[in-house]
Amino acid sequence: MNYNLLKGKKGIIFGALDENSIAWKTAERIYEEGGKFVLTNAPIALRMGEINELAKKTNSQIIPADATSIEDLNNLVEKSMEILGGKLDFILHSIGMSVNVRKGKPYTDQNYDWTHKGWDVSAVSFHKTMQTLYQKDAMNEWGSIVALTYMAAQRVFPDYNDMADNKAYLESIARSFGYFFGKDKKVRVNTISQSPTPTTAGQGVKGFDGFINYAEKMAPLGNATALDCANYTVAMFSDLTKKVTLQNLYNDGGFSNMGVSNEVIDAFSKK
Questions:
Q1: Which of 85, 104, 143, 174 could be joined to 187 by an S-S link, Cβ 3.0–4.6 Å?
Q2: What are phi and psi of 247, to 5 degrees?
Q3: Closest by CA position to 20, among listed 123, 100, 92, 94
Q4: How confident is the model over 151-200, as pLDDT tens digits?
Q5: Is 10 helix (H, G, I), strand (E, B) or coil?
Q6: DSSP 90-154
């Protein structure tokens, strides 16, 4: 069921790669709720993904941009406002990458050049994006900026590797920049901490299937899907959440507040 929650609103969606990605599902839901947007991803990701299909489906244009490049971000924001006809109402930052994870480097033996690259892509790009939007006064009042995160920012998930550090930094940026965006522009900034979700990026983490199965047994409501996250993001982009800012919002079926569940106890009690 659609409610026209985003009718007349416009924005930018970072990170849609294929139909498994949360950004892809979110783009579909925003379109269904009446929103308009520009799609963007790094040039190499655009070559790997199927984003042209999404653009056609949602009547959107694609602007390639390296989110770590200020030059690319300046171009992205300026062209997006031209295409969409004015200031923006929402931004989704759905970007994450660890070269150490991809290359199988353990947390105790980092390649620091790779660490720095992952940190820049996964976390600092969020600051660069908001700084560009802020300096260009590109957001309408009561606009909403959301970045996707994971609770490894607060708790230890050994094989999540340096991505845990990146997500912790991302969440801090959201709070710190969110203060200035709120005070100066009346724009809200939040992060959504999603259940482990079988996206293309997520499946690159060692033991990811175990993450998903464990979380499913722990969460009273079960894992939140990519579509669940898309619906939550739509709510955060709507006028129904105008006073919610500086928050890390868990969309995880209750997992984050669990100590243990009967299902997990039963699994370890079997002889």
A1: 143
A2: -105, 145
A3: 94
A4: 999 999 999 999 999 999 999 999 999 999 999 999 999 999 999 998 76
A5: strand
A6: EEEE-----HHHHTT--GGG--HHHHHHHHIIIIIHHHHHHHHHHHTT-EEEEEEEEEEE-GGGT
The answer to whether the pTM exceeds 0.85 is: yes
Strands (E), the chain: 10-14, 36-40, 61-62, 88-93, 139-149, 188-194, 248-251
Over its C-alpha atoms, the chain yields an Rg (Å, rounded) of: 18
3-state secondary structure of 243: coil
Domains delineated in the chain: 10-269 (3.40.50.720)
Looking at the DSSP bridge assignments, the partners of residue 12 are 38, 91
Tell me whether residue 172 is exposed, middle or buried, using C-beta atoms within 10 angstroms of its C-beta: 0 to 12, 13 to 18, 19 or more. Answer: middle
Give the bridge partners for 188, in sequence order: 144
- For residue 212, what is the DSSP state? H
Cα–Cα distance measured from residue 216 to residue 252, given in angstroms and rounded to the nearest whole number: 9
The predicted-structure confidence for 46-96, as pLDDT tens digits, reads as follows 887 799 999 999 999 999 999 999 999 999 999 999 999 999 999 999 999
H/E run at residue 228: helix 226-237
